[in-house]
Amino acid sequence: MRDSPFLEDVLNDQVLEALCGLSEAGEAPFTEQVAAAGLDPQRDLQHAHLAGVCLEGCDLRGYDFTGADLRGAYGFAVNFDDTTVLEGAHVEGSIFAETVRRKRLFADHPDWQSEYLRRRRAYWADTINWVDASLRPEVPNRHRAAEIAKAIFDASSDAVLRNNILFFMSRVFETRHEHSDFLLHTMAKNFSDPKVVRSVVSVLARLFPNDEASYRLLRRMERSPQVSPAVRETAMVGVLRSKYFKNDLEEIARGINLHSGSVRRAFVRRVATLSGPSYVLATTEPTGSVALDCSEPVTDRKVWDIARRILRDKKVSSQTGRKFGSQPPADPKSEAVRALAVMILPLLDQLKEKGVPFKIVAKEESLLPPPASQWLETSTGSSR
Predict the structure, then answer these.
(1) How far apart are the C-alpha atoms of 159 and 165, rounded to whole Å?
(2) Alpha-carbon dihedral 56, 60, 64, 65, rounded to 10 degrees
(3) Which end of the chain has fewer CB atoms surrounding its CB within 10 Å, N or C?
């Protein structure tokens, strides 16, 4: 292809050198890829197609993204300021959306800019009281106060002031997009503050798991060694709730055992729910309350107990119209229990093929009724 006369002006030596640099950069951060390609960040990124780009850990001060497509750009610990040029850029659903929108608002309303500067110079406790009072539902012009409060949040380094503003801000967003843009922006700019990070991740996980940019950020957070285990687990909750989860199921499964038991159980329940009601029944603990922990061995005894629980719940539900409470379990020696236990194994095997890392040690040929003494142990709450 390089020798084609039609490509001489496209694949020139400079472009080929840039492509070689990019290939060597691999999965390096965006700024390192720009440097490896020999690009000038103040010139060569104008009108670039960068939709969905990950900007994690990048210092973008001095970068010129004039007219660039940055829709859905995401990341945390991103450093950008007034020297980052976003004039005419498409920033919908990105970490820049909040900054661009607010800049336009302040340009259109100079009095807002004046109020912002006045509040920034005020004592921090007075500013908190002003934010609290100004963002109440009954205040007629609270939208103006909200924009000023968000600007103060960005500019301040006081942890108490910022956490209070983040708390009070939940009252004022008129649309989901406005709220999610603010959260993505906050995460990008405030990664060094663990309290802010955990608060933002918690809100994203609860309210915006189906927003694509939010989901990508949550995926990065649940795998990042730079955040605390608590933040990683909060992020994983959002990942499991997302409609995009099934697209990444196999990759998520490979690292699921690095999470806590509660997250592993939630993962099993999510995959089972996607697969159908029979899989949910087959993966619910004998106690009937939570899903199996995929890091624990699935023994013959465990399968027997699950089968008895299913039959027990079915019997009580048909007789009383309620779930199992204190009724006796099905006879552990019955053929019905044995037949159901044998049916459970293929369901677990199928989930394992989908990526759930079950440790299945149970064998169909060994699914025989346990001795009565063992069954009595199960009825008092113990399980092997």
Answers:
(1) 10
(2) 20
(3) N
